[in-house]
């Protein structure tokens, strides 16, 4: 809905090894200059302000393209993986129940499988894989 069918055909026919986010900005600049020459934009200061704002938006799109182009370094995923597995191991040790033979008050239940710790690990490992 942002382009006419004719503009879309021109856009699709343009060959570029990279993303073509910049093409509509060039079109906008040409149309704005044409509008200034035809008198639809009355002042050059207005045209300059309009072009400055559009160039600012174009640079934001370029920055976004840079974030998409450069992947997350492998060391970050390794650190997060190590943190998840270390946290799980610490939880396995730290969340064990007390020995019921010692007679601690209020600690009669002794589970052999830490269900909630396993669920928490599955959630964290699942998020890590995503």
From TrEMBL:
Name this protein carries in UniProt: Bestrophin homolog
Gene designation per UniProt: Best3_0
The keyword Transmembrane helix is assigned to this record: yes
Keyword presence, Cell membrane: yes
Positions of transmembrane segments: 82-98, 110-127
Lineage: Eukaryota, Metazoa, Chordata, Craniata, Vertebrata
CC annotations in GO: chloride channel complex; plasma membrane
Organism: Penelope pileata
Taxonomy, superkingdom: Eukaryota
Gene Ontology molecular functions: chloride channel activity
